[in-house]
Write a structure and sequence with these properties.
Blueprint: H1 3-6, H2 9-31, E1 47-55, E2 60-67, E3 78-82, H3 90-98, E4 102-105, E5 108-111, E6 121-126, E7 135-136, E8 143-145, H4 147-164, E9 173-178, H5 181-199, E10 204-210, H6 216-229, H7 235-243, H8 247-255, H9 261-274, H10 317-322, H11 325-330, E11 349-350, H12 360-368, E12 373-378, H13 386-400, E13 404-413, E14 416-424, E15 428-433, H14 440-443, H15 445-457
Parallel strand pairs: 3-6, 3-9, 8-11, 9-10, 10-12, 12-15
Antiparallel strand pairs: 1-2, 2-6, 2-7, 4-5, 13-14, 14-15
Signal peptide: 1-25
Enzyme class: hydrolase
Keywords: Carboxypeptidase, Hydrolase, Protease, Secreted, Signal
Length: 465
Protein backbone atom coordinates (compact mmCIF):
# COMPACT_ATOMS: atom_id res chain seq x y z
CA UNK A 1 0.00 0.00 0.00
CA UNK A 2 1.33 3.42 -0.95
CA UNK A 3 1.81 6.29 1.46
CA UNK A 4 -0.90 8.19 -0.37
CA UNK A 5 -3.39 5.35 0.30
CA UNK A 6 -2.56 5.38 4.02
CA UNK A 7 -3.39 9.04 4.47
CA UNK A 8 -6.84 10.39 5.24
CA UNK A 9 -8.78 11.29 2.11
CA UNK A 10 -8.60 15.06 2.76
CA UNK A 11 -4.84 14.98 3.28
CA UNK A 12 -4.35 12.86 0.19
CA UNK A 13 -6.42 15.29 -1.83
CA UNK A 14 -4.34 18.22 -0.62
CA UNK A 15 -1.13 16.45 -1.53
CA UNK A 16 -2.53 15.60 -4.96
CA UNK A 17 -3.57 19.20 -5.57
CA UNK A 18 -0.15 20.44 -4.45
CA UNK A 19 1.55 18.00 -6.81
CA UNK A 20 -0.68 19.05 -9.71
CA UNK A 21 -0.01 22.70 -8.83
CA UNK A 22 3.73 22.09 -8.84
CA UNK A 23 3.56 20.41 -12.24
CA UNK A 24 1.33 23.16 -13.61
CA UNK A 25 3.54 25.92 -12.21
CA UNK A 26 6.62 24.28 -13.70
CA UNK A 27 4.97 24.47 -17.10
CA UNK A 28 4.01 28.12 -16.46
CA UNK A 29 7.48 29.17 -15.39
CA UNK A 30 9.08 27.23 -18.25
CA UNK A 31 6.99 29.27 -20.70
CA UNK A 32 8.51 32.44 -19.21
CA UNK A 33 12.08 31.24 -19.41
CA UNK A 34 14.36 33.47 -21.49
CA UNK A 35 16.47 31.38 -23.83
CA UNK A 36 18.88 34.24 -24.48
CA UNK A 37 18.57 38.00 -24.77
CA UNK A 38 19.83 39.50 -28.04
CA UNK A 39 23.48 40.50 -27.72
CA UNK A 40 23.77 38.87 -24.32
CA UNK A 41 27.12 37.48 -23.15
CA UNK A 42 27.21 33.83 -22.09
CA UNK A 43 26.13 33.38 -18.45
CA UNK A 44 25.44 30.44 -16.17
CA UNK A 45 22.22 31.66 -14.53
CA UNK A 46 18.59 31.43 -15.64
CA UNK A 47 16.36 34.35 -16.59
CA UNK A 48 12.59 34.56 -16.78
CA UNK A 49 10.13 37.26 -17.79
CA UNK A 50 6.48 37.59 -18.58
CA UNK A 51 3.12 38.62 -17.21
CA UNK A 52 1.02 38.07 -14.13
CA UNK A 53 -2.62 39.11 -14.46
CA UNK A 54 -3.67 40.92 -11.30
CA UNK A 55 -7.25 41.58 -12.42
CA UNK A 56 -8.91 39.05 -14.74
CA UNK A 57 -12.07 41.11 -15.23
CA UNK A 58 -10.31 44.28 -16.35
CA UNK A 59 -7.39 42.38 -17.87
CA UNK A 60 -4.71 44.26 -15.97
CA UNK A 61 -1.33 42.56 -16.14
CA UNK A 62 2.06 43.37 -14.58
CA UNK A 63 5.33 42.55 -16.32
CA UNK A 64 8.27 41.07 -14.43
CA UNK A 65 11.88 40.09 -15.07
CA UNK A 66 13.68 37.54 -12.89
CA UNK A 67 17.46 37.15 -12.96
CA UNK A 68 18.32 34.17 -10.81
CA UNK A 69 21.46 34.24 -8.71
CA UNK A 70 24.74 33.68 -10.56
CA UNK A 71 25.70 30.80 -8.27
CA UNK A 72 23.67 28.45 -6.05
CA UNK A 73 20.33 30.16 -6.73
CA UNK A 74 18.48 27.59 -4.63
CA UNK A 75 20.31 28.78 -1.51
CA UNK A 76 20.01 32.52 -2.21
CA UNK A 77 17.14 34.80 -1.11
CA UNK A 78 14.55 36.38 -3.39
CA UNK A 79 14.72 40.17 -3.70
CA UNK A 80 11.94 42.26 -5.22
CA UNK A 81 13.13 45.58 -6.68
CA UNK A 82 10.78 48.52 -7.31
CA UNK A 83 11.63 51.84 -8.95
CA UNK A 84 9.76 55.04 -8.28
CA UNK A 85 8.26 57.89 -10.25
CA UNK A 86 5.49 57.05 -9.62
CA UNK A 87 5.32 55.56 -13.09
CA UNK A 88 8.92 54.61 -13.92
CA UNK A 89 10.20 51.21 -14.95
CA UNK A 90 12.01 48.77 -12.69
CA UNK A 91 13.06 46.92 -15.83
CA UNK A 92 14.61 49.87 -17.64
CA UNK A 93 15.99 51.71 -14.61
CA UNK A 94 16.64 49.01 -12.03
CA UNK A 95 17.49 45.97 -14.15
CA UNK A 96 19.18 47.54 -17.18
CA UNK A 97 20.69 50.71 -15.69
CA UNK A 98 21.36 50.00 -12.03
CA UNK A 99 21.79 46.61 -10.38
CA UNK A 100 20.75 44.03 -12.97
CA UNK A 101 23.11 41.56 -14.65
CA UNK A 102 23.46 43.47 -17.94
CA UNK A 103 23.66 46.97 -19.35
CA UNK A 104 22.94 47.82 -22.99
CA UNK A 105 25.86 49.12 -25.03
CA UNK A 106 25.12 49.72 -28.67
CA UNK A 107 23.52 46.59 -30.11
CA UNK A 108 24.76 44.26 -27.36
CA UNK A 109 24.58 43.73 -23.62
CA UNK A 110 27.64 43.92 -21.40
CA UNK A 111 28.00 42.22 -18.04
CA UNK A 112 27.46 44.37 -14.97
CA UNK A 113 30.37 43.41 -12.72
CA UNK A 114 28.46 44.61 -9.66
CA UNK A 115 25.10 43.03 -10.35
CA UNK A 116 22.99 42.26 -7.31
CA UNK A 117 22.21 38.79 -8.63
CA UNK A 118 25.67 37.84 -7.38
CA UNK A 119 24.00 37.75 -3.96
CA UNK A 120 20.31 37.09 -4.62
CA UNK A 121 17.63 36.08 -7.07
CA UNK A 122 16.52 39.48 -8.39
CA UNK A 123 12.88 40.08 -9.32
CA UNK A 124 12.08 43.36 -11.10
CA UNK A 125 8.45 44.46 -11.38
CA UNK A 126 7.07 47.11 -13.72
CA UNK A 127 4.32 48.62 -11.59
CA UNK A 128 1.62 49.94 -11.66
CA UNK A 129 -0.20 48.99 -14.85
CA UNK A 130 0.66 51.42 -17.63
CA UNK A 131 4.37 51.36 -16.75
CA UNK A 132 6.76 49.81 -19.27
CA UNK A 133 5.32 46.57 -20.66
CA UNK A 134 2.64 46.31 -17.95
CA UNK A 135 -0.77 47.00 -19.38
CA UNK A 136 -4.55 47.04 -19.11
CA UNK A 137 -6.88 46.41 -22.03
CA UNK A 138 -9.02 49.39 -20.98
CA UNK A 139 -7.30 52.78 -20.88
CA UNK A 140 -9.58 53.79 -18.00
CA UNK A 141 -7.44 51.52 -15.80
CA UNK A 142 -4.62 54.06 -16.11
CA UNK A 143 -6.74 56.82 -14.57
CA UNK A 144 -6.91 57.58 -10.87
CA UNK A 145 -4.23 55.06 -9.96
CA UNK A 146 -2.97 55.63 -6.44
CA UNK A 147 -0.80 54.13 -3.71
CA UNK A 148 -3.60 51.93 -2.39
CA UNK A 149 -4.32 50.40 -5.80
CA UNK A 150 -0.60 49.94 -6.50
CA UNK A 151 0.05 48.19 -3.18
CA UNK A 152 -2.90 45.85 -3.65
CA UNK A 153 -1.85 44.98 -7.22
CA UNK A 154 1.71 44.33 -6.07
CA UNK A 155 0.42 41.98 -3.37
CA UNK A 156 -1.74 40.08 -5.86
CA UNK A 157 1.22 39.92 -8.23
CA UNK A 158 3.39 38.22 -5.62
CA UNK A 159 0.63 35.79 -4.64
CA UNK A 160 0.17 34.70 -8.25
CA UNK A 161 3.88 34.83 -9.09
CA UNK A 162 4.54 32.24 -6.38
CA UNK A 163 2.08 29.93 -8.19
CA UNK A 164 4.45 30.11 -11.16
CA UNK A 165 7.54 29.74 -9.02
CA UNK A 166 6.58 27.66 -5.94
CA UNK A 167 10.26 26.85 -5.34
CA UNK A 168 10.56 30.39 -3.96
CA UNK A 169 7.66 30.11 -1.53
CA UNK A 170 9.67 29.49 1.63
CA UNK A 171 12.69 31.46 0.52
CA UNK A 172 13.81 34.52 2.47
CA UNK A 173 12.17 37.52 0.77
CA UNK A 174 13.44 41.10 0.80
CA UNK A 175 11.81 44.15 -0.79
CA UNK A 176 14.03 46.94 -2.09
CA UNK A 177 13.63 50.08 -4.14
CA UNK A 178 14.29 53.79 -4.36
CA UNK A 179 12.75 57.25 -4.65
CA UNK A 180 8.93 56.97 -4.73
CA UNK A 181 9.39 53.33 -3.76
CA UNK A 182 9.62 54.92 -0.31
CA UNK A 183 5.84 54.67 -0.70
CA UNK A 184 5.61 51.43 -2.67
CA UNK A 185 7.87 49.27 -0.50
CA UNK A 186 6.52 49.98 3.02
CA UNK A 187 2.91 49.84 1.83
CA UNK A 188 3.43 46.47 0.15
CA UNK A 189 5.30 45.10 3.18
CA UNK A 190 2.44 46.20 5.43
CA UNK A 191 -0.10 44.33 3.28
CA UNK A 192 2.11 41.24 3.31
CA UNK A 193 2.25 41.24 7.11
CA UNK A 194 -1.52 41.63 7.30
CA UNK A 195 -2.01 38.81 4.79
CA UNK A 196 0.37 36.58 6.75
CA UNK A 197 -1.85 36.76 9.84
CA UNK A 198 -4.26 34.40 8.09
CA UNK A 199 -2.25 32.71 5.37
CA UNK A 200 1.45 32.90 6.32
CA UNK A 201 2.58 33.06 2.70
CA UNK A 202 5.44 35.56 2.71
CA UNK A 203 8.77 34.94 4.42
CA UNK A 204 9.56 38.67 4.63
CA UNK A 205 13.04 39.26 6.08
CA UNK A 206 13.58 42.97 5.52
CA UNK A 207 13.18 46.07 3.38
CA UNK A 208 15.74 48.53 2.01
CA UNK A 209 14.86 51.87 0.42
CA UNK A 210 17.26 54.31 -1.21
CA UNK A 211 16.81 58.12 -1.26
CA UNK A 212 13.16 57.45 -0.41
CA UNK A 213 10.18 59.75 -0.12
CA UNK A 214 8.85 58.94 3.35
CA UNK A 215 7.54 62.24 4.67
CA UNK A 216 6.66 65.01 2.26
CA UNK A 217 7.61 68.09 4.27
CA UNK A 218 10.82 66.74 5.86
CA UNK A 219 12.16 65.18 2.66
CA UNK A 220 11.31 68.08 0.39
CA UNK A 221 12.27 70.91 2.70
CA UNK A 222 15.71 69.47 3.30
CA UNK A 223 16.48 70.55 -0.25
CA UNK A 224 17.05 74.19 0.73
CA UNK A 225 19.72 73.33 3.30
CA UNK A 226 21.33 70.93 0.84
CA UNK A 227 21.51 73.57 -1.89
CA UNK A 228 22.93 76.15 0.52
CA UNK A 229 25.47 73.83 2.16
CA UNK A 230 26.78 72.79 -1.25
CA UNK A 231 27.11 76.35 -2.46
CA UNK A 232 24.31 76.16 -5.03
CA UNK A 233 22.28 79.11 -3.68
CA UNK A 234 23.07 82.41 -1.98
CA UNK A 235 22.34 83.40 1.61
CA UNK A 236 19.38 85.66 0.67
CA UNK A 237 17.87 82.93 -1.52
CA UNK A 238 18.30 80.36 1.25
CA UNK A 239 16.40 82.68 3.57
CA UNK A 240 13.57 83.10 1.01
CA UNK A 241 13.54 79.35 0.36
CA UNK A 242 13.08 78.59 4.05
CA UNK A 243 10.93 81.55 5.14
CA UNK A 244 8.62 82.63 2.33
CA UNK A 245 8.10 79.56 0.18
CA UNK A 246 9.67 76.24 1.12
CA UNK A 247 9.80 73.40 -1.37
CA UNK A 248 6.91 71.38 0.07
CA UNK A 249 4.64 74.42 -0.21
CA UNK A 250 5.72 74.97 -3.80
CA UNK A 251 5.12 71.32 -4.80
CA UNK A 252 1.76 71.30 -3.04
CA UNK A 253 0.68 74.44 -4.89
CA UNK A 254 2.09 73.15 -8.17
CA UNK A 255 0.08 69.92 -8.06
CA UNK A 256 -3.06 71.85 -7.26
CA UNK A 257 -2.46 74.31 -10.09
CA UNK A 258 -2.36 77.28 -7.73
CA UNK A 259 1.27 78.40 -7.56
CA UNK A 260 1.38 81.72 -5.71
CA UNK A 261 3.31 84.71 -6.98
CA UNK A 262 5.64 84.43 -3.96
CA UNK A 263 6.49 80.79 -4.72
CA UNK A 264 6.96 81.63 -8.38
CA UNK A 265 9.42 84.36 -7.43
CA UNK A 266 11.35 82.18 -4.97
CA UNK A 267 11.56 79.15 -7.24
CA UNK A 268 12.63 81.28 -10.20
CA UNK A 269 15.53 82.64 -8.17
CA UNK A 270 16.44 79.15 -6.91
CA UNK A 271 16.37 77.91 -10.49
CA UNK A 272 18.61 80.72 -11.72
CA UNK A 273 21.20 80.18 -9.00
CA UNK A 274 21.29 76.36 -9.06
CA UNK A 275 21.43 76.52 -12.87
CA UNK A 276 19.85 74.18 -15.36
CA UNK A 277 23.38 73.00 -16.14
CA UNK A 278 23.63 71.19 -12.80
CA UNK A 279 22.05 67.75 -12.44
CA UNK A 280 19.85 67.87 -9.34
CA UNK A 281 20.06 64.09 -8.95
CA UNK A 282 23.85 64.38 -8.58
CA UNK A 283 25.12 67.88 -7.95
CA UNK A 284 28.68 66.85 -8.85
CA UNK A 285 27.77 65.34 -12.22
CA UNK A 286 28.35 67.16 -15.50
CA UNK A 287 25.29 68.31 -17.36
CA UNK A 288 24.62 65.51 -19.85
CA UNK A 289 22.64 62.75 -18.18
CA UNK A 290 20.65 59.86 -19.60
CA UNK A 291 16.88 60.02 -19.42
CA UNK A 292 16.84 56.89 -17.26
CA UNK A 293 17.63 59.21 -14.38
CA UNK A 294 14.24 60.88 -14.66
CA UNK A 295 12.36 58.52 -12.35
CA UNK A 296 11.81 61.27 -9.79
CA UNK A 297 9.99 63.54 -12.22
CA UNK A 298 6.82 63.46 -10.13
CA UNK A 299 8.56 64.25 -6.87
CA UNK A 300 10.68 66.85 -8.62
CA UNK A 301 8.15 68.82 -10.72
CA UNK A 302 9.70 71.05 -13.34
CA UNK A 303 7.35 73.65 -14.83
CA UNK A 304 8.21 74.51 -18.40
CA UNK A 305 8.87 78.17 -17.68
CA UNK A 306 11.64 77.22 -15.26
CA UNK A 307 13.66 75.45 -17.94
CA UNK A 308 14.39 72.44 -15.73
CA UNK A 309 13.52 69.54 -18.02
CA UNK A 310 15.79 66.53 -17.73
CA UNK A 311 18.68 66.75 -20.17
CA UNK A 312 18.73 63.77 -22.52
CA UNK A 313 21.81 64.70 -24.54
CA UNK A 314 23.26 61.24 -24.01
CA UNK A 315 21.69 58.52 -26.16
CA UNK A 316 19.47 56.36 -24.03
CA UNK A 317 20.72 52.88 -24.83
CA UNK A 318 18.14 51.20 -22.61
CA UNK A 319 15.23 52.74 -24.51
CA UNK A 320 16.75 51.73 -27.83
CA UNK A 321 17.37 48.18 -26.65
CA UNK A 322 13.95 47.56 -25.09
CA UNK A 323 12.17 48.92 -28.16
CA UNK A 324 13.78 46.33 -30.44
CA UNK A 325 11.29 43.72 -31.61
CA UNK A 326 13.74 40.86 -31.17
CA UNK A 327 14.33 41.94 -27.58
CA UNK A 328 10.62 42.17 -26.84
CA UNK A 329 10.12 38.72 -28.33
CA UNK A 330 12.91 37.28 -26.18
CA UNK A 331 11.35 38.91 -23.10
CA UNK A 332 7.85 37.61 -23.96
CA UNK A 333 6.78 41.25 -23.79
CA UNK A 334 4.24 43.14 -25.82
CA UNK A 335 3.10 46.72 -26.20
CA UNK A 336 -0.61 47.24 -25.53
CA UNK A 337 -2.18 50.63 -26.15
CA UNK A 338 1.16 52.26 -26.87
CA UNK A 339 3.67 52.13 -29.69
CA UNK A 340 6.82 52.52 -27.65
CA UNK A 341 8.31 51.30 -24.40
CA UNK A 342 9.21 54.29 -22.20
CA UNK A 343 11.36 54.65 -19.09
CA UNK A 344 8.54 56.56 -17.37
CA UNK A 345 4.92 56.08 -18.36
CA UNK A 346 3.22 58.52 -20.71
CA UNK A 347 -0.23 56.98 -20.20
CA UNK A 348 -0.44 56.64 -16.42
CA UNK A 349 -2.51 59.22 -14.55
CA UNK A 350 -1.27 58.77 -10.99
CA UNK A 351 -2.74 60.49 -7.95
CA UNK A 352 0.24 62.77 -7.36
CA UNK A 353 -1.15 64.13 -4.08
CA UNK A 354 -0.43 60.74 -2.53
CA UNK A 355 3.13 62.01 -2.22
CA UNK A 356 1.90 64.14 0.70
CA UNK A 357 0.78 61.08 2.68
CA UNK A 358 3.64 60.00 4.99
CA UNK A 359 4.94 56.44 4.99
CA UNK A 360 7.47 56.83 7.81
CA UNK A 361 4.71 55.75 10.21
CA UNK A 362 4.30 52.53 8.20
CA UNK A 363 8.06 52.00 8.42
CA UNK A 364 7.66 52.29 12.19
CA UNK A 365 4.96 49.62 12.23
CA UNK A 366 7.19 47.31 10.19
CA UNK A 367 10.01 47.74 12.71
CA UNK A 368 7.57 47.01 15.55
CA UNK A 369 6.55 43.85 13.71
CA UNK A 370 10.19 42.73 13.67
CA UNK A 371 11.00 43.58 10.04
CA UNK A 372 14.55 44.96 9.63
CA UNK A 373 14.66 48.27 7.73
CA UNK A 374 17.57 49.93 5.94
CA UNK A 375 17.28 53.51 4.67
CA UNK A 376 20.24 54.55 2.52
CA UNK A 377 21.10 57.76 0.71
CA UNK A 378 23.39 58.72 -2.12
CA UNK A 379 25.03 61.82 -0.65
CA UNK A 380 25.15 63.80 -3.92
CA UNK A 381 21.37 63.79 -4.42
CA UNK A 382 19.53 67.07 -3.88
CA UNK A 383 16.13 65.71 -4.96
CA UNK A 384 15.62 63.62 -1.81
CA UNK A 385 18.64 64.67 0.25
CA UNK A 386 20.29 62.50 2.89
CA UNK A 387 19.59 65.08 5.59
CA UNK A 388 15.85 64.51 5.39
CA UNK A 389 16.15 60.73 5.48
CA UNK A 390 18.65 60.86 8.34
CA UNK A 391 16.35 63.13 10.34
CA UNK A 392 13.37 60.84 9.81
CA UNK A 393 15.22 57.66 10.79
CA UNK A 394 16.63 59.25 13.95
CA UNK A 395 13.22 60.59 14.93
CA UNK A 396 11.62 57.19 14.33
CA UNK A 397 14.28 55.48 16.46
CA UNK A 398 13.57 57.91 19.30
CA UNK A 399 9.81 57.37 19.02
CA UNK A 400 10.27 53.59 19.14
CA UNK A 401 12.71 53.79 22.00
CA UNK A 402 15.50 52.13 20.01
CA UNK A 403 18.99 52.62 21.36
CA UNK A 404 22.01 53.03 19.10
CA UNK A 405 23.65 49.65 18.53
CA UNK A 406 26.15 50.81 15.89
CA UNK A 407 27.29 54.39 16.58
CA UNK A 408 27.59 56.80 13.69
CA UNK A 409 30.77 55.85 11.83
CA UNK A 410 32.35 55.35 8.43
CA UNK A 411 32.02 52.11 6.50
CA UNK A 412 34.36 50.78 3.84
CA UNK A 413 34.09 49.34 0.35
CA UNK A 414 37.46 48.01 -0.73
CA UNK A 415 40.10 50.36 0.63
CA UNK A 416 37.96 53.47 0.43
CA UNK A 417 35.30 54.98 2.67
CA UNK A 418 31.98 53.84 1.26
CA UNK A 419 29.91 56.19 3.39
CA UNK A 420 28.60 56.61 6.93
CA UNK A 421 26.14 54.54 8.93
CA UNK A 422 24.23 54.27 12.19
CA UNK A 423 22.08 51.39 13.48
CA UNK A 424 19.32 51.48 16.08
CA UNK A 425 18.20 48.42 18.01
CA UNK A 426 19.86 46.11 15.46
CA UNK A 427 16.74 46.52 13.32
CA UNK A 428 16.62 50.08 11.95
CA UNK A 429 19.64 51.31 10.00
CA UNK A 430 20.64 54.43 8.11
CA UNK A 431 23.56 54.63 5.70
CA UNK A 432 24.98 57.10 3.23
CA UNK A 433 26.81 56.05 0.09
CA UNK A 434 29.71 58.38 -0.62
CA UNK A 435 29.74 59.92 -4.08
CA UNK A 436 26.41 58.35 -5.04
CA UNK A 437 23.57 60.05 -6.85
CA UNK A 438 19.81 59.54 -6.48
CA UNK A 439 20.19 56.14 -8.18
CA UNK A 440 22.85 54.64 -5.90
CA UNK A 441 23.57 51.37 -7.80
CA UNK A 442 23.92 53.34 -11.05
CA UNK A 443 26.39 55.89 -9.73
CA UNK A 444 28.33 53.81 -7.18
CA UNK A 445 27.83 50.18 -8.19
CA UNK A 446 30.70 48.67 -6.17
CA UNK A 447 29.72 50.45 -2.96
CA UNK A 448 26.06 49.64 -3.54
CA UNK A 449 26.89 45.94 -3.79
CA UNK A 450 28.79 46.03 -0.47
CA UNK A 451 25.77 47.74 1.10
CA UNK A 452 23.37 45.18 -0.40
CA UNK A 453 25.43 42.19 0.75
CA UNK A 454 25.57 43.46 4.33
CA UNK A 455 21.83 44.14 4.30
CA UNK A 456 20.99 40.61 3.15
CA UNK A 457 23.29 39.10 5.75
CA UNK A 458 21.86 41.21 8.57
CA UNK A 459 25.35 42.49 9.33
CA UNK A 460 26.65 46.00 10.04
CA UNK A 461 28.52 47.60 7.16
CA UNK A 462 32.27 46.83 7.22
CA UNK A 463 34.22 49.16 9.51
CA UNK A 464 37.64 48.35 8.11
CA UNK A 465 39.32 47.44 4.80
Amino acid sequence: MSLLQCLPVATALILLLQTLSLVSSTVLSRADRITRLPGQPRVGFQQYSGYVTVDEKQQRALFYYLAEAETKPISKPLVLWLNGGPGCSSLGVGAFSENGPFRPKGSVLVKNQHSWNQEANMLYLETPVGVGFSYATESSSYEGVNDKITAKDNLVFLQKWFLKFPQYLNRSLFITGESYAGHYVPQLAQLMIQYNKKHNLFNLKGIAIGNPVMEFSTDFNSRAEYFWSHGLISDPTYKMFTSYCNYSRYVSEYYRGTVSSMCTKVMSQVSIETSRFVDKYDVTLDVCIPSVLSQSKRVNPQPQQMGEAVDVCVEDETVNYLNRRDVQKALHARLVGTRKWSVCSNVLDYEVLDVEVPTINIVGRLVKAGVPVLVYSGDQDSVIPLTGSRTLVKRLADELGLRTTVPYRVWFAGQQVGGWTQVYGNILAFATVRGAAHEVPFSQPARALVLFKAFLGGRPLPEEF
